[in-house]
Amino acid sequence: MTESVTDGRQEYGAEDASAVPTARQGPPRPAAPPELDYNGRKHRRAMDNASLVEMARRIPRALAQTAWLAWSVDRRMAITILVCQLMSGVGTAVMLTAVSKALPLLTTADPGAGLAQAWPALAVAVVALGAGSGMWILADWATRRLNPKIASAADLALVDLHMRAELSAYDTPGFTDRGQAAEVGAMRAVDLADDAKTLTNGFVQLVSAATVLTSLHPLLLGVLLLSVVPRGLGGVVAARIDYRVHDRTISARNVRGMMRWWLTTSELADELRANTMRGYLHFWYRTMCDRVEGRELEGARPYLWVTLLAASLAGLFTLGMWASLAALVLAGSMTTAIAGTAIVASQTAGRALNSIVRYGAVMFHHGLYLSDYFDFIAEVGSMTAARGSARPKAPEKIRFESAGFTYASKGTPALHPISLTFERGQVIALVGENGAGKSTLIRMLTGLTLATEGAVYWDDTDLATADAEAVWQHVGLVPQKSGHWPLAARENITLGQPRHHDDAPIWDAADRVGMADHVRELPDGLDTLLARSVWGGQELSGGQWQRLACARAMYRRPAVLVLDEPTSEMDARGEHLIFRELRKMAPDRITVVVTHRLDNVRMADRVIVLDKGRIREEGTFDDLVQTDGSLLGELYALAQDR
Ligand SMILES: Nc1ncnc2c1ncn2[C@@H]1O[C@H](COP(=O)(O)OP(=O)(O)OP(=O)(O)O)[C@@H](O)[C@H]1O
Question: Could you tell me which residues are beta bridge partners of residue 399?
């Protein structure tokens, strides 16, 4: 079915994938979403440069990384697996040796006498086989205990690093993409221990079987190896194709995943519908799906050819092995009994080699994702907010000394070097047009970012030398966009503070922002989950969420209280209440408020007007609005003239 969604200017084939919009009379055809490919380049270069030998080298590295992860989460289980692997290898060697001893006895002229002589060796073979299987089962149990622990630890490390990274990390080109690739690495960690165990078990079994095979006839091992080499190479090349497809689609999948949230969340459902955005967004999303799908399909054909070729060659080489065995027996170079043992040993070695090839390819594949994971961990690890050890007290004064800030991605400063002081007891209003640098100044003031020029001091402590967490202990921040945390109302107020048994301060904070009555009316009061998308959860209005963010900052009773447009979604009563509370709380702290509602600025002791990253004017509200040519005066007049 093809449905056309018309907004009067453009038409999109909204349901049919092939119906990429066609230009009719006049309206321009919408462009496909741009190719986003900042991160892929690095990986593709690495992939293209890597020879098979180099790629195979990744396997031991992946095994070592897995072993390290296993060791760090549960040493007991890691040792159990190792011991079981070795024991199962010993079991195989004992079993094969016992078979090689028993078979010549069984092929004598008198089978009865042969059996009587061979039974101890056969019994040893059976016990060794059973013990080997037991070891394998034990290793399996240990791996199952290890897998979820490795997965949680890998995921936790990733999430935690994100939370500890300097804000500038998010501005690094390709950061989100690399984060996504690392997430895939962390997700793959679920299977890591299992696959590593199967691979190493293959090695152990192979060594056992190869030792026995070589002792029977040196030629046998070479012939056996030949039968699995093609499959091994095929597996590695196929994994390489797979990873390249993954790598070529990661940016598209990443941006599609982000857009998916925007398209399905109730928060944007009104805007999307009422503004007839669905047609274009459907086209956009479909194009991304097609892009990913197309690249995956492109990889399917070479994948098929490689695996087919590898399997055919492997078949031919296996045939060759059987022919060689027959030739050796016919030429009298090998007895039938030894050939029989060789068959049993070659079965074991063949299975082991197959495991090595199969799981070697899997581990190689894991290795690529794991390297993404570890690279990202190292990258973000070096970007965590570890600045210095000074632990500043609640500041009496915050001083900017020629402090400026330039974002890494920008050539010009967002804030040119400025010098000014914020004092305890004062309410300071920051005013300025969009992009003037207010939020940037706030981030510097609270130590969220460090000045790229000059310095910011909390009393005598340069924030560049201070422990970031120790600084933030004294901060309460209401950012422009605060989190609608899918937690209970109680946690939404206390988040970031130690939990107390007494609810009185929580109700007090709710009361200060005019939310106490509403919270009382919620089905479970403070315990009500504030997330409509979760079963039993409740939703708040935009203004109510803002009130809760203010309550959270007030509950902290911080020495530095910073609010970035805290009342933009609030009604007049809420706004009045918040500013009244701020004034009441002001004597014990440094209060900084950013607001575009200039009537509120009156309550500030001091107004700082920023313009294009510079301080344009500073003083009391009344003085500034009455000054000729004042930007505040002009903005205020415009606000009155609305
Ligand atoms: N993460 C960032 N990376 C690069 N540039 C940024 C970043 N954040 C802000 N900027 C730029 O820095 C300048 C100052 O931005 P800032 O957010 O401080 O302005 P603002 O005064 O708070 O604006 P608004 O009133 O719109 O909130 C702007 O030019 C903005 O584009």
Answer: 421, 457
Residue 462's CB: how many other CB atoms inside 10 A?
18
CB 232 within 8 Å of CB 300 = no
Q: Which two tokens stand for residue 108?
A: 């004598």
Integer Cα distance of 26 and 280 in angstroms: 17
| Whether the CB of 611 sits within 6 Å of ligand 1 | no
- For ligand 1, say whether the CB of 141 is within 6 Å of any of its atoms: no
Q: Could you say which DSSP state residue 417 is in?
A: E
- Residue of minimum CA distance from atom 1 in ligand 1: 171
- Whether residue 133 contacts residue 201, with contact meaning beta carbons closer than 8 Å, is answered with no
DSSP state of 184: H
Structure tokens at 624: 């500034």
**Phi, psi of 111, deg, nearest 5:** -60, -35
> Which of 462, 459, 435, 432 is CA-nearest to residue 447?
462
Among positive and negative, which fits the CA dihedral 51, 52, 53, 55?
A: positive
Residues 365 and 195: beta-carbon distance below 8 Å: no
Helix (H) or strand (E) holding 5: strand 4-6
In the numeric block, the tokens 């008198």 are attached to: 110
Residues pairing with 400 in the sheet: 420, 456
Amino acid at 428: I
CA angle 74, 76, 77 (to 5 degrees): 70
Distance CA 304, CA 319 (A): 23
- Which of 172, 440, 482, 594, when mutated, tests ligand 1's pocket best, judged by the most ligand atoms within 8 Å of its CB? 440
Question: How do residues 426-446 score in pLDDT, each as one tens digit?
Answer: 999 999 999 999 999 999 999
DSSP sequence for 95-164: HHHHHHHHHHHHTSS-HHHHHHHHHHHHHHHHHHHHHHHHHHHHHHHHHHHHHHHHHHHHHHHHHHHHHH
Asked whether the whole model's pTM tops 0.90, one would answer no
Structure tokens at 57: 């080298």
613 CA closest ligand 1 atom index:
14
Neighbours of 54 (CB within 10 A): 10
pLDDT in tens, 243-260: 788 778 877 888 898 899
Nearest to 527 by CA among 538, 517, 535: 538
Residue type (1 letter), 509: A
State whether ipTM is beyond 0.95. Answer: yes
Residue type, 299: G
CA distance 347 to 577: 81
**Spatial separation of the C-alpha atoms in residues 532 and 534, rounded to whole Å:** 5
428, 600 in Cβ contact below 8 A? no
Q: Which residues contact 523 (CB under 8 A, 6 or more apart)?
A: 536, 538
